[in-house]
């Protein structure tokens, strides 16, 4: 039987992989995917607690997070595509002119 602890451990592992990817990788697209992995690990935690507590609030938060993630995908991918068209690279080290 899979319990709450299993889901929380899996969520922590996924979140850690995503956080390491954000800090280690230099490609904006891979960083973007790692952020999505972190958001999905949070969603897994919400669903696990929702099931454990027999409360639907966690599942409602998942819909909110999915909505924010969808908006992030639209805006983020548009920015990444524009940067790639202009600079022909998405390496975050080479994109320093956006610091302001």
Number of strands: 0
Counting H and I runs of at least 4 residues, what is the number of helices? 3
Overall mean pLDDT score? 91
What is the straight-line distance between the termini? Answer: 53 Å
Structural class by helix and strand composition? mainly alpha
- Determine the fraction of residues in helical runs and give it as a percent range: over 70%
Descriptive overview:
The relative contact order is 0.13. The chain is built from three helices and no strands. Helix 1 packs antiparallel against helix 2. It is elongated and about 50 Å long. By secondary structure, it is mostly helical.
Q: What characteristics describe this protein?
A:
100 residues, mainly alpha, elongated
Could you provide a short overview of the structure?
By secondary structure, the chain is an all-alpha fold. It has helices at 4-24, 28-53, 57-87.
Topology (elements, then pairings):
Elements: H1 4-24, H2 28-53, H3 57-87
Helix pairs in contact: 1-2, 2-3
């Amino acid at each position: 039987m899979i319990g709450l602890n299993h889901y929380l451990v899996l969520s922590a592992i996924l979140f850690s992989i995503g956080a390491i990817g954000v800090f280690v990788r230099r490609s904006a697209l891979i960083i973007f995917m790692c952020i999505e992995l972190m958001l999905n690990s949070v969603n897994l935690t919400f669903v696990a607690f929702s099931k454990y507590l027999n409360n639907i609030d966690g599942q409602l938060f998942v819909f909110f997070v999915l909505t924010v993630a969808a908006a992030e995908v639209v805006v983020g991918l548009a920015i990444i595509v524009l940067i790639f068209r202009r600079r022909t690279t998405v390496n975050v080290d080479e994109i320093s002119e956006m610091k302001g």
